[in-house]
Amino acid sequence: MTIFAVLLGAQLIRSRHMTEQREQGDGRMRAWVVRAGEYGQRETVALENGMLLAGWLGLGDLAEARTRDDIRALVAAAYPDEGAYTIGNWTGQLFRFVHEIQPGDLIVLPLKSLQVAVGRVTGSYEHRADSPDGMRHVRRAEWLVTDIDRQTIQSDLLDSMGSLLTVFELSRFGAAERVAALAEGKPDPGRPDADEFAATLTGPTKLFEEVHRRDEDDPLTLSVRDFLAVWGVQRRHPAATEYIKDELEERGLITVPPFTEGTLDSRITVLAGGAEPDESGTSAVSRLSLGTLTSVAGPAVTHIIKRAAELLRPAEEPEQPNVAYRVSNLDSANRMPESVRIGDGVETAMTLMLLHGYSQLPVLDPDGRLRGIVSWESIGRARLADPAAGLQAATVRGQEADGSDDLLDWIGVIEQSGHVVVRDHDHKVCGLITAADLTVQFGTRVRPFVLVEEIEQRLRRVVDRRIPLDRIRKVVRERPERVHSAADLTFGAYGHLLRARENWAALEWRVDQQHFLTALEECRVLRNDLMHFSPDPVTDDQLLPVQGLLELLRSMDPQS
Known about the structure:
The protein is α+β, with helices and mostly antiparallel strands. It has four domains: 3-183, ph1033 like fold; 198-312, no CATH class; 327-427, CBS-domain, CATH 3.10.580; 439-556, no CATH class. The protein has 21 helices and 16 strands. Strand 14, helix 15 (411-417) and strand 15 (419-423) form a beta-alpha-beta unit. Helix 10 packs across helix 11 (299-312) and helix 18 (491-499) packs antiparallel against helix 20 (513-531). The protein is globular. 28% of the residues are buried.
C-alpha cells in the first residue's frame, strides 16, 4: 500500500466519523466561546439579534468549504500577506465555527460590561452577504442569560475563557456542565476534581498544622494555585515567593516539586523536611532518601519520595533563583502528547497525525522514555529510500528538554526544529512544546504591556494638549525643571495631576472624575505588577479593568 493510499484512507475514515457524529450526535455536552470582537464591537448585534458573529473582514462565504483545506485556501487567498502560522490558526477557528459547533451546544460570550452571556446554538453556519463586513459569518443562537456576574464564576473557568482566540472550546475542568449550571441561573459549581479540602486551608497556620498532623505515607498534596491562595497570592512574584519560601523554611517544610515549577494547576506535595531525628537517629529526610517508606507507600507517594531525595541531596552547584521562566511553566509541557511506541506501524503514526493535525509525534519505549521523533518529513525521506520503510526507519533523533530547564535556552531550538519534547525527573516524556505554543504564550504576555502602553500614550497626548507645563510640573517634587512634557511624568503622577479640579476641568471630559481616578489607580497597580517578573500570565479577567479604561480613553479622545 502506498503512502498516498494510506493518507486517503485515513482521511476518509476521519470524514466518515465526523459525519456520523454530526448526524447522530455523540451525546457529549460541549461549550464554546465565540467572542464579539477584540473589544466587544459586535456584542450588541449578537445579543439583540440572537446570533454568533465571527469577524474576519474581507473573507467570503464558507458554506461550501467542507474541509480544513478548503477553508485554509479561502483564508490564504483573503489574507495573502499573512504567514503560515496565522493562516493555520485562523483556519482552525473558522473550521470550528462552521463545522464543529453544533446546534444544541452551549455558547459563552464575555461582555464589555464585565458580565458574561450564555446561550445555546440553534442554527448552522450562514453567510449574510448584505450585512456589514465583519458581521457576515453567522450562527443562530438563543441567549439564555445575559447578565452573569463574573464573581459567580470560579477563577479556573474564567482563566479558560481568557484565551486570545475568537472561537475556541471550553473543554477543561468539566466546563460544559458548569456553563450549563450558569445558564440555569446557578453559580459555578466548580471543577469536578476540585480540592474541597484545600479550601479549608485558610491561612499558613492551617497548612502547617495539616502537614504536621499527617503521616509520612499520606502527605498533603494540592495545586500550586491552591497553595498560593493560602497566602492570598495569585501569581508567583519574586517578593511573594521569597516570603513563602522563608515561611516554609522557618517551619521546616518543603514542597515537591518546588512550587515555583510548573503551571498554577500543577500538583505539589508539602513535606515536613526539618523534623528532629527519630529513635534511630535519622531525620525524615534521610528516611525518605533511604527509601524506608517505599514499602508502605503507593506509586504516587513513592514518586514524591524519590523527588524529595533529589531536592534534599547536598547541592553540588549554587542554588538556582526561586523564580525563573522554566520549560514546565508552559501548559503543553505538562500535557502528555499523542505518541507511538516502538513496534507500532508507520501507518499508526500517520493516522494519529492526520486525526489530530500534528506534524510530528514522539516515539517512546515501553517505559515512556523518548526514542526519537517521527514526522511527515522523516516518513517522506524514509519512503523515498525504501517505499516499504517502517516506523524504525522513519524515526529520527528528537530534541529533549527537562521541565526544570530555562525556557529561554530552548527557544532557538524550538524555532529551528518546530518543537521540543519535555521529560520529567524520571526522564519519561510528559509534554511537547511547539512553535505555536510559544507564539500563544508570549502573545498572552505581550498583550498587557501593549494595553498599558496605549493608555499611557493617550494620557500623555491629552495632558500635553490641555494642561499648561507649569501645572504639570507642580506634581513633580524633585527637580521639576527637568520636566519638559507629560512624557517625563511617572505613570503614578497622572493620578495626582488629574485630581486637581482645574486640571480635570481642562480636559473637558464628561465622565465621573472619581470613577476615572479609581480605574487609573487600578491600571497603575497592574503596571507595577507587570514590572515584577512572574512565570504566571496575567489572566483575561485581571486585564478587564485596564481594557475598560482604554476603551473609555478611546471614546473620549478618538483622534489621539
